[in-house]
Amino acid sequence: LYLSSKSNMAFTLYSLIQAVILCVNAVAVLHEERFLSKIGWGVDQSIGGFGDEPGIKVQLMNLVRSVRTVMRVPLIAVNSVCIVLLLLFG
């Protein structure tokens, strides 16, 4: 059997960056009313008492809201750069 020396499944820094961008895109498109409230992760489910430590669910919801708020414009630019790089270099 002849195997080519160039592997298409190489683990590179670029593929790691693409995986991170894909995960951030997945978090950024989650919709609270349509998806997250149906599984119990909506806005009204995360109300805690004064002085209580926020649980992991509340912290994850804050992370999702922060990613959607802060990363919206940078994600458009980063996705555009990745698309151009893929078109140019395959």
Automatic annotation (TrEMBL):
Chief location: membrane
Localization of this protein: Membrane
Keywords for this protein: Membrane, Protein transport, Transmembrane, Transmembrane helix, Transport
GO cellular component: COPII-coated ER to Golgi transport vesicle; endoplasmic reticulum membrane; Golgi membrane
Glycoprotein keyword on record: no
Membrane-traversing stretches: 12-30, 69-89
GO biological process assignments: endoplasmic reticulum to Golgi vesicle-mediated transport; protein transport
Domain of life: Eukaryota
Family note: Belongs to the YOS1 family.
Name assigned to this protein: Immediate early response 3-interacting protein 1
Species per Swiss-Prot/TrEMBL record: Oncorhynchus mykiss (Rainbow trout)
Biological classification of the source: Eukaryota, Metazoa, Chordata, Craniata, Vertebrata
